[in-house]
User: Which sequence fits this backbone?
């Protein structure tokens, strides 16, 4: 099954390698891995989708926490959250086929972000299945899909839940560049630890 | 930079201007390091140039693998952190085996390597290799340091990471230009922030209660004593627990010494080459109390049949070990000593000794291992050698083994009474480990009697370190268990590959002459009657001494669980002269 994790990590060279290497070591395939800046300086946010047996989630979480530069890991798979993905799709298009593509794009709430004499680029931000649906439909409709670029999942919990680690950083956070670069920050709150523990012994 | 240092004041005051090279040593001194194992080279030369200003003993090794094993043996013998230093490129890649060895056995060592200048990083400069990329999966953490001001924080952080939580090796790679730059040094300001415990550590009131309930109900409990007892210094607590509740104790290989061998509750080593009754006791147990051990495949055999009747309590500091191999009923995740200290006051009373009697009955005559008094059949068995070594050293020596048959014989026939008296590569099973690790152990514990026990195969992997031993004038004794084969592989070929002894017969040098060339005293022993005199001669000599024990060639380690078989499906000792019968007693 696919597990989805959100990880807050120190923004420094090599962190991506460490996280990827951990999953490689466990022989779990990375379906997608998105990294970007978070709301806090020097902290990156990753959304990792890994294909692994159902019981492997706690082991991945526990192993990720052993990485010095990982600040927080959240297994969002079983939580209420928004999961979106973005795709850029380049389709062959000419004067005759364009209007049909406009129509499809409208139905799927995709945007046309580039238009050329023989092609068109669609941008869609949606759940995975909707993107797959659009791609299938394009093919079924005999549109030649020239290029596809997909971001992989981005996830965020719904409601008031926030990355509490980052709040904690404000109080007792890293004081120097080195602290940040070494990922030396406060850990998850008690509440977050409670959830972790449930993950660990729940199944 | 000479203005800062003189012999009387080795530790520079805050704000002193130091080169990165000086900062390396100053930080190590500040961390309490007195001995460093290393090998110089181009990219680490600035550091070596500065070494003379600091009160650090540098042990020049003959191969960087040796430096890492020495740091490892130093850490295992002392309970502290071992330090190894090497240059970039091949110097650093030679450290890989030692780092992996320390990783698999959770040994705190800090390895420092030189790296080419930051300006040419990634350009395939002379002796450049992406060593932090290579060591990433075999270290607890690693650092690439390119600025002098980051050296002290990185090294101090490395020590903290190495020692804290589940210990492990840490690697610090420092570019040459960082060693050469001059910056202000402030040891205190470079302190690592307080250790951030793994957020999944957890031992709640409920889990304590659940553990106590299981203990109260147990009729046939067994303690599985692992390396974590030594790591956590929880020997006293485990002894307390076992004695108060009359629970028999089975040890893992790395747990030997964590519980006194002579204690009536100590069953001995479990697992692939554990005695039958130990594994039987585990199979029949209704409660396993796993203390600082990780249910390694060499311990469990087939997981499908492992201790099916037993509930399991796992006390472990690494949350990723919980339910990894064996699903447990209660997990107490934290430092073993701390967990046990919380558990001990509430232990339910238990006076029932019937289970111990039952286990003792399982031992039968096999438990009488007085091989000393067996008649001399003219054969020299490795078991005799190890057993005599145990008697002759009073069980008080530090024994450092290599990997293979002799390692298992050592575990079976040397009774480890004291913690940290067995140093062996358990997880990675690194041949060539013994000699360098023993050098490290001897430097850590100069007043202890230290013995290398190695096979003829493994010994040849790192034998150049004999020169290190001599250069450092160490009083170290070496017992080679020489059977002319890569013995453990031969044994597997015998049992599982129809005696196809492919590439296992081994021609060795004349070890006596080899030792002589290095300046060690040495003797060869072929008769049982010569064993004790040779050991005595070694003990008396007071320098490097090597004994080439030429033992029975095709002897095997018994009992044995074939890989993947169930714990109770052991291959028993055949009728060889080492199997005691009632007539011998």
Assistant:
């Amino acid at each position: 099954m696919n597990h989805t994790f959100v990880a807050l990590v120190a923004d420094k060279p090599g962190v991506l390698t460490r996280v990827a290497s951990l999953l490689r070591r466990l022989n779990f395939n990375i379906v997608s891995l998105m990294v970007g800046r978070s709301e806090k300086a020097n902290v990156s946010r990753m959304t990792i989708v890994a294909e692994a047996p159902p019981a492997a989630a706690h082991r991945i979480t526990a192993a990720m926490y052993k990485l010095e530069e990982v600040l927080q890991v959240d297994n969002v798979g079983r939580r209420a959250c928004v999961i979106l993905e973005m795709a850029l799709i380049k389709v062959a298009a000419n004067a005759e086929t364009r209007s049909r593509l406009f129509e499809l794009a409208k139905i799927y709430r995709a945007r046309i972000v580039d238009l050329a004499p023989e092609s068109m680029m669609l941008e869609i931000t949606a759940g995975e299945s909707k993107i797959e649906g659009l791609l299938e439909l394009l093919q079924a409709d005999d549109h030649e899909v020239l290029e596809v670029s997909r971001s992989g999942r981005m996830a965020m919990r719904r409601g008031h839940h926030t990355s509490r680690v980052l709040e904690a950083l404000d109080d007792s956070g890293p004081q120097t560049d080195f602290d940040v670069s070494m990922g030396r920050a406060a850990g998850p709150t008690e509440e977050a630890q409670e959830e972790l523990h449930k993950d660990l012994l729940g199944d | 930079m000479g203005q800062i240092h003189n012999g009387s004041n080795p530790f520079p005051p805050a704000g002193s201007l130091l080169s990165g090279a000086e900062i390396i040593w100053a930080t190590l001194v500040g961390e309490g390091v007195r001995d460093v194992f290393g090998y110089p080279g181009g990219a680490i030369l600035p550091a070596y140039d500065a070494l003379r200003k600091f009160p650090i003993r540098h042990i020049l090794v003959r191969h960087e693998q040796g430096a890492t094993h020495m740091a490892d043996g130093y850490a295992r013998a002392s309970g502290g952190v071992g330090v190894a230093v090497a240059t970039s490129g091949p110097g650093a890649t030679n450290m890989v085996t030692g780092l992996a060895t320390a990783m698999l056995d959770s040994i705190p060592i800090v390895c420092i390597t030189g790296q080419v200048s930051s300006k040419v990083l990634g350009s395939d400069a002379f002796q450049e290799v992406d060593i932090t990329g290579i060591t990433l999966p075999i270290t607890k953490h690693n650092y690439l340091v390119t600025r002098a001001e980051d050296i002290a924080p990185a090294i101090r952080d490395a020590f903290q990471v190495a020692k804290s939580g589940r210990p492990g090796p840490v690697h610090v790679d420092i570019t040459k230009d960082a060693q050469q730059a001059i910056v202000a040094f402030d040891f205190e300001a470079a302190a690592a922030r307080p250790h951030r415990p793994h957020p999944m550590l957890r031992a709640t009131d409920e889990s304590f209660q659940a553990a106590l309930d299981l203990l109260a109900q147990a009729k046939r409990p067994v303690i599985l004593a692992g390396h974590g007892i030594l790591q956590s210094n929880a020997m006293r607590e485990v002894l307390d627990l076992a004695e108060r509740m009359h629970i028999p104790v089975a040890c893992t290989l790395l747990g030997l010494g964590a519980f006194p061998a002579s204690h009536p509750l100590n069953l001995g080593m479990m697992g692939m080459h554990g005695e039958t009754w130990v594994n039987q006791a585990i199979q029949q147990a209704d409660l396993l109390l796993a203390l600082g051990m990780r249910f390694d495949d060499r311990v469990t055999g087939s997981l499908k049949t492992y201790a099916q009747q037993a509930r399991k309590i796992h006390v472990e500091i690494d949350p990723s070990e919980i339910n990894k191999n064996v699903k447990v009923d209660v997990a107490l995740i934290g430092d073993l000593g701390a967990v046990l200290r919380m558990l001990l006051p509430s232990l339910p009373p238990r006076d029932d000794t019937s289970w111990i009697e039952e286990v003792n009955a399982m031992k039968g005559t096999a438990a009488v291992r007085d091989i000393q008094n067996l008649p001399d059949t003219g054969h020299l068995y490795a078991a005799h050698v190890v057993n005599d070594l145990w008697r002759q050293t009073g069980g008080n020596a530090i024994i450092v083994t290599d990997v293979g048959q002799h390692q298992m014989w050592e575990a079976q026939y040397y009774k480890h009474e004291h913690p940290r008296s067995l140093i062996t590569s358990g997880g990675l099973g690194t041949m060539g480990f013994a000699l360098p690790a023993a050098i490290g152990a001897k430097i850590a514990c100069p007043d202890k009697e230290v013995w290398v026990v190695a096979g003829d195969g493994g010994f040849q992997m790192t034998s150049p370190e004999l020169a290190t031993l001599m250069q450092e004038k160490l009083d170290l004794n070496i017992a080679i268990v020489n059977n002319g084969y890569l013995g453990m592989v031969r044994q597997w070929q015998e049992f599982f590959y129809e005696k196809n002894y492919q590439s296992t017969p081994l021609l060795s040098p004349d070890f006596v002459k080899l030792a002589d060339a290095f300046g060690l005293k040495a003797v060869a022993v072929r008769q049982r009657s010569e064993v004790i005199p040779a050991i005595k001669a070694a003990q008396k000599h007071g320098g490097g001494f090597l004994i080439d024990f030429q033992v029975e060639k095709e002897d095997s380690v018994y009992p044995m669980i074939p890989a993947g078989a169930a714990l109770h499906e052991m291959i028993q000792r055949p009728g060889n002269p080492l199997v005691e019968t009632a007539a011998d007693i």
Remarks:
- The longest strand of chain B covers residues 109-115.
- Confidence is low (pLDDT under 50) at residues 1-8, 579-585 of chain B.
- The interface with chain A takes residues 132-133, 136-137, 140-141, 144, 150, 153-154, 157, 161, 192-193, 196-200, 202, 318-320, 322-324, 331, 333 of chain B (CB under 8 Å).
- DSSP finds 23 helices and 20 strands in chain B.
